[in-house]
Write a structure and sequence with these properties.
The protein is mainly β. It is built from one helix and 27 strands.
Length: 330
């Protein structure tokens, strides 16, 4: 009986040791983006060490179409031929190639259902009343039709492809996916955050924010939207299509803003360095350190503490990169 008590005590000690002292898993913060410095190529880097892990040449890509797939650990993009390509950024191996019906942007991944979700548009020209009789080659105003599409990443099959009314369109750098609720979210041009059922393209919620938001990322842990916002009107904060960046004058203030996804209430609004602006459509969230990650006009990766806006880490890539995605490798 005494021996049994000793054995039980030792067993309890072993269990306690296993629960209180988990294995120390080393992780690395990885970034993958597209560089055109030496020809168009996907570049994968370890931000912690600064090492370039791999480069993969590609022909071309569509801005706003890039994703990181946590299931395959692949970096995906839509090329100039409306084909979605999923590539292992560390090896350069092609994981999947899927032909799409259009130039899909605002792309996100549903990791649980293994779906690619995004938006694309078709365009036709309306007849110009002044030229109908003369059959002039002059075209009337363009008419856009928007669609929300879901694609099975395993089979390449289109699961749904439904028309949606987006009015004058949606901002290019504020979009995300709430995987728990299966909601796809866009920031419409009239500054409403709209929640969409991606299976039907039905808009199920509209939330007025009323300010320009850029480079947004969704934190599912506390259901918040983390983004950049600005202290002046839209006319003082310009988007450059040529450089794919948001440029700000010296007197314009840039804020790291955290918004409640459900109510639209601003939780925090911390002033951060402007630095001439930030590259468009590059935003990441590192849960391990509570960092918001952006890339400034000098193509410097900057990690901000979400709670304070304080700069915690900087990294300058060997070559400038765009459409970067960030994740932890364990």
């Amino acid at each position: 009986m005494k021996n049994l008590a000793v054995f039980s005590g030792l067993l309890a000690l072993v269990v306690l040791s296993c629960t209180e002292q988990p294995a120390d898993r080393h992780s690395a913060l990885i970034a993958t983006g597209i560089s055109v410095a030496k020809g168009t190529e996907i570049v994968c880097v370890d931000i912690d060490s600064g090492a370039v892990m791999n480069t993969t040449p590609i022909d071309c890509y569509l801005f706003g179409s890039t994703v990181y797939d946590p299931t395959t650990k692949g970096y995906g993009f839509v090329d100039c031929h409306t084909t979605f390509n999923l590539i292992n950024p560390e090896s350069g191996k092609l994981i999947k190639s899927i032909k799409l019906p259009g130039n899909v942007t605002h792309a996100v991944i549903d990791a649980k259902d293994n779906l690619l979700i995004g938006r694309y548009a078709t365009m036709i020209y309306e007849e110009d009343p002044d030229t109908i009789d003369t059959k002039s080659a002059k075209a009337g105003p363009p008419i856009y039709t928007h669609y929300i599409i879901r694609v099975n990443l395993s089979t390449g099959a289109i699961v749904s492809n439904n028309e949606i009314d987006l009015g004058d369109g949606a901002y290019a750098t504020t979009y995300y996916y709430n995987e728990k609720e299966k909601h796809y979210v866009l920031y419409r041009a009239d500054k409403y955050l709209i929640t969409i059922n991606p299976a039907t393209a039905e808009i199920i919620k509209e939330l007025y924010i009323g300010k320009t938001l850029s480079n947004s990322v969704y934190n599912p842990v506390n259901n918040t939207l983390i983004c950049l916002s600005f202290s002046t009107a839209d006319m003082s904060q310009a988007y450059s299509a040529d450089s794919l960046s948001y440029s700000t004058d010296d007197y314009i203030r840039t804020y790291l803003t955290v918004i409640n996804h459900e109510t639209g209430a601003v939780i925090s609004n911390n002033l951060i360095e402007s630095g001439g602006g930030y590259q468009a459509n590059i935003a990441g969230y590192d849960r391990e350190n509570n960092w918001y990650i952006a890339v400034n006009s000098k193509f410097e990766v900057v990690c901000f503490d979400v709670s304070t806006g304080e700069v915690k880490k900087r990294y300058i890539p060997e070559d400038p990169m765009k459409d970067m995605k960030f994740w932890r490798r364990y």
